[in-house]
Every structure is written in structure tokens, then in C-alpha cells.
Amino acid sequence: MKYAIIAAGEGSRLANEGVSVPKPLVSVQGEPLVDRLIRIFSDHQASEIAVICNELMPDVVCHLKRRRDEGKIVVPLRVVVKSTPSSMHSLYELSPFLDDEVFCAATVDTVFREEDFAGYVKALQRMCIDSDADGLMAVTAHIDDEKPLYVSVGADEWIDGFHDAHVQGADLVSAGIYGLTRRSLPVLRQCVQRGESRMRNFQRALLDEGLRLRAYPFGKVLDIDHADDITKAEAFLQEGV
Asked: Averaged over 58-77, what is the pLDDT?
């Protein structure tokens, strides 16, 4: 399985609150966010990991290349350096490396428990074998985002809508982890060609184009957007020890 890490954001809110390192290098429990995702993905059948980094954050690129050269990254790693206007555009830049098998993408600031992710990967692998689903999208009842994307789910966990505001039947929100088949990529490219942006609009387009997406509930997922989110994430992970 291939993995993609979206790490091209500017992290402006963290910087404005006094965090001096780029978001991908922010440490949670002594481990930079990007290293944490690479380690977890490597432990879950990663055949290759692709990371996109912001051009304005050369420290992140140097960090990844150094770890790769030192042999601390045990799977093939592709690093794309490009500033993008949205996570959707970041995924688009990584899409040439994701076109031959199922892939899982996540934003670099997504923090979750490893045992939850292990269950998700098993479900994603089952989906590829015995399901007609085109994607398995992580969702959570824990709302941690300032502008959450609400997800309405019907029978058998099939997703029937993505909403900017809470509506009846949409009690879950997107958790920032996306498992998709190659059938999603033409839709992604169409979105970019039409001038659309934001990952949520890509997800809506998947449904509009008739792709079938299932929801996979995580217990809790956090985002690192503000300085105090770092403390919250460490406490959350410590709860599972």
C-alpha cells in the first residue's frame, strides 16, 4: 500500500503563537509529526511513502533527506517540494506516485492512536479484496477542527454527503485520513482543472461522480493547529499508555 503525507501548509497559526519550528517538525511525545506518520505508515505495509513539503520550509526537506540518508526511513520515500493553495492541490501534486494501487493519504498534523490506525488499515485492505467501495474515509465523533467537515452516513457505513455545517444524520466529522483507490485520481485531476480547491470539495466530487465511499469510525483524532494543541495531543496519546 502506498501512503501520502500532506505537509505543504504554512503553519501560520502555530508561528503566530510562538512555535519556532515548521509544523511537520513539531514534536509530540518527543517525535516530529512527520516522523511519527512515516514510522506508523512503515509499520503498516507501506510499499512507498510520498511527502509534499512547502518550498518555504527547507528545514523539513533537509530533515527528511537526512533521515533517509542515515537509513532511519526503511521504505522508499519520495519528497516533493512545492507550495500549494490547498490540501487538495497537495494531493494532486503527489498523484503521479499513487496511480498503481490503493493509497492512504493524511495531513501531517493528524494525531491518532496507532491501534485505531491498525484497525483502519485492515479494513482498507479488506475493502480492496471483497468490496465495491472506492474509498474508506476516517471519521470521528470528536470535533477538534475549527471548520469541521460533517459526514452523513447511511446503511452499512456508506457515505451519502459531506457538509460544511451540521445537518440531521451528520453527527460525524472527517478525520483527515483518506483511503482511496486509483479510480479517485481522475476526479482529483478534474477538480484541479476546474479551478476548485479544498479537500472537502474533492470528496464531494467523488460522490457526485458516483464513487462509493465508506466511513470508518476512529475513536478520536486531533489536529495540531495551535500551540496548545501540542499539549492536548500528548495528553491524548498518554491516555492510551
From this structure: 94
Helices 33-42, 58-69: axis angle to 10 degrees equals 40
Cβ atoms of residues 116 and 227 within 8 Å: no
**41's grid cell:** 505508515
Res 61: pLDDT: 95
At 234 the three-state DSSP class reads helix
Instruction: Give the CA distances from residue 56 to residues 9, 11, 17, 175, in Å, rounded to whole numbers and listed in that order.
Output: 10, 11, 18, 26
pLDDT: which is higher, 15 or 71: 71
pLDDT greater than 50 at residue 213: yes
Asked if 142 and 220 count as a contact pair (C-beta separation under 8 A), the reply is yes
Cell triple for residue 186?
Answer: 481522475
SS3 (DSSP) at 88: helix
**Count of Cβ atoms closer than 10 Å to residue 119 Cβ:** 14
- Report the distance separating Cα 41 and Cα 168, nearest Å: 35
Assess contact for 64 and 58: CB atoms under 8 A: no
pLDDT at 80 over 60: yes
Q: Which alpha helices (H) appear in the chain, and where do they start and end?
A: 12-16, 33-42, 58-69, 87-94, 114-130, 185-193, 199-208, 227-239
**Residue 139: beta bridge partners?**
174, 217
Q: How big is the CA angle at 113 (ends 108 and 118), to the nearest 5 degrees?
A: 95
Contact of 99 with 182, CB cutoff 8 Å? yes
By the 8 A CB rule, do 179 and 137 touch? Answer: yes
Task: Inform me whether the pLDDT recorded for 151 exceeds 50.
Answer: yes
Neighbouring-strand partners of residue 48: 2
* pLDDT, position 240: 60
